[in-house]
Amino acid sequence: MKVLAVHPDLIVVVSRFWQTTCTAIRAGDEGFVIDSPVYPDELEAVPEVLEQAGFPVSGLLATHADWDHLLGRIAFPQASLGCGESTAERLAAEPGQAQRELREFDEDHYVDDRKPLALAGIQSLPVPGRLALGPSEREIELHPADGHTADGTAFFMPWLRALVCGDYLSPVEIPWISPDGSIEAYRATLERLRALVARADTIVPGHGRPLERADANRVLDEDVTYLEALVTVGVDAPLPAGRRTGAQRRIHAENVERLQRTVSQ
Ligand SMILES: [Zn+2]
After folding, report:
1. How far is the CA of 25 from the centre of ligand 1 (A)?
2. Ligand 1 centroid to 69 CA: how many Å?
3. Residue 58: exposed, middle, or buried by beta-carbon count in 10 A (0-12, 13-18, 19+)?
4. pLDDT in tens, 143-197
């Protein structure tokens, strides 16, 4: 995994798997960790990295309920876990789903040293909303970010000029409409994110390295173009440059299938 000190109060950890990101933010003697890396050794290393850097962990946050973003409790078993209300609802509606998918991943990848994932007692946070942090009452803004899945929250830290948006604006992954996601919601989220990107110096996508504003805007425009083409030309829609890998073609095929099902319903 990579550890990137982006700002004195912002550390981004990038997992070896899917370049999944985990973001630590600090405000005085308080701090939050948003999302998680994937492999057991990475989850074990995160508390050590943050302790060495003097980053306190007052709580955990998750951008959405996909299992690869929910593993923070394995690294910090005692910490409270908060998420937007749409994510809390999804987790309540599908109990055990994240654990099942995690087990499947571990079996597929021969991972046999996984500590149990406990997701009880999740705190549901209002979205849009704000979360106060630290002695100087810094506020994290919570914005709706659905479309990739039915749930989703983007976290914006004005004092760090940093946006942690979940599975959008990825330099390594094309827009992915999950079975419970929606292309209309995805496009609306991109426009909401455009306004937040304009206020940010650092954009941390759910997968891939943190981006500067100009790069995030480029990815955003490419994603808008891709989704437009997905609707108009379907399977022949060109993938964004730099994201034309076999894995992205498989995601594209899923998107096409998903869209056909929506249309035929
Ligand atoms: Zn993800």
Report:
1. 20
2. 6
3. middle
4. 999 999 999 999 999 999 999 999 999 999 999 999 999 999 999 999 999 999 9
Which residues place a Cβ less than 5 A from the ion ligand 1? Answer: 66, 68, 167, 206
How far, in Å, is the centroid of ligand 1 from the Cα of 137? 30
Instruction: Give buried/exposed letters for 92-108 (b at 16+ CB in 10 A, else e).
Output: eeeeeebeeebeebbee
Going by pLDDT thresholds of 50, 70 and 90, the confidence category of residue 97 is very high
CA of 148 to the centre of ligand 1 (A): 9
Pair 68, 19: CB distance under 8 Å: no
Ligand 1 centroid–CA 198 distance in Å is: 23
In the reported structure, the alpha carbon of residue 165 is separated from the centroid of ligand 1 by a whole-number distance in angstroms of 11
Reduce the DSSP state of residue 201 to 3 states and report it: coil
Give dist(CA 50, CA 76) in Å, integer: 11
Comparing C-alpha atoms, which of 65, 34, 217 is closest to residue 142? 34
Pairing of strands 129-133, 202-205: unpaired
Residue 202 backbone dihedrals phi, psi, to 5 degrees: -130, 130
Distance 21 CA to ligand 1 centre (A): 9
The reported pTM is 0.96
